Amino acid sequence: MASDFDLYRPSEEHEMLRDSVRALAEAKIAPYAAEVDEEARFPQEALDALVANDLHAVHVPEAYGGAGADALATVIVIEEVARVCGSSSLIPAVNKLGSLPVILSASEELKKRYLAPLAKGDAMFSYCLSEPDAGSDAGGMKTKAVRDGDSWVLNGVKRWITNAGVSDYYTVMAVTDPDKRTKGISAFVVEKDDQGVSFGAPEKKLGIKGSPTREVYLDNVRIPADRMIGAEGTGFATAMQTLDHTRITIAAQALGIAQGALDYAKGYVQERKQFGKPIGDFQGVQFMLADMAMKIEAARQLTYAAAARSERVSEGSEKEDLTFFGAAAKCYASDAAMEITTDAVQLLGGYGYTRDYPVERMMRDAKITQIYEGTNQVQRIVMARNLP
């Protein structure tokens, strides 16, 4: 076998992308991360920097003006932004989540209409699946869409919508045939400025405070019939197919947060002295760092392997076990991130518990990765039903 066998090594282009995103994130995003969290404000500086460098929606195909980045490149962008600011990493992550149903299932006309502005940075995209009484059981949604001539009229409430009020476009799942349960759900593109669209107050959250989470209210929202994504009744299948791909981006977010916490803790224990020497010289501290690094590397390998499968599925492969690997990557990486960020706080002692240091923010940000895009309890059910 050849000595240059590259099975488990990202390409040189992927590593160059990592270097450039890390440099940008440290220079243009990290300086505002604490302020964004403290003030619970949208990270406009991050959006501006990402758009200026064409990193806000790298997944958009070249045919629609995008960078055409593969799934691993998208993961690396999200990972490196999350390393310095979890809130900011939701810009590229949710742009993919919101627009992927269009990429997967929409007409060519819809793709051109909505992906081009996204690629240019003129618009952001959000994803509206969850409702007040339909979280893990997304098939139990109550938002309805009723056909009226050449239009559909939407009524309902969507909850936990990331970047709601900031995004210009929304992929909305709604019931078009109540008798068919999940096969009676269809997908639509709703625009922020459509008459009848409004937003609730931002949720007061534990973490990712810079990314607004709000309810989306649909009050007799009339949209043209051609804004349906795919055929009637295929919305739920498109939603689940989307999550198979985008759970990997949440794994990437968790991975980046965990890496940021380890990097900070590693530097701290080399400088903090007790009993006459750096605390990093004590074996107990070394064991903690070793376990943190080991879990990160395991999470990275699983996440990158899942991203590779996502890319191959996008190219037409049907033998990739993507549902299992997407759930596994998201579940493992987020559990690891929660453990690693908690250990980072412990390593900083009392300082770690204060907002003067970033690890407490990272710990708070990590928690949501165990919850959204399917709780980790649901991910384990998904894995068990899709064992490779």
Commentary on this structure:
With 388 residues, the chain is of the alpha+beta class. 51% of the residues lie in helices and 14% in strands. Helix 4 (86-105) packs antiparallel against helix 5 (108-120) and helix 8 runs antiparallel to helix 9. The longest helix is centred in the middle third of the chain and has 37 residues, at 235-271. It starts with 11 loop residues before the first helix and ends with a helix.
Provide a concise account of the structure shown:
With 388 residues, this protein is α+β, with helices and mostly antiparallel strands. The protein has helices at 12-39, 44-52, 71-82, 86-105, 108-120, 235-271, 283-314, 322-348, 359-368, 376-385; strands spanning 125-128, 144-148, 151-162, 169-175, 185-191, 197-199, 213-224, 228-229, 273-274, 277-278. Helices cover 51% and strands 14% of the residues.
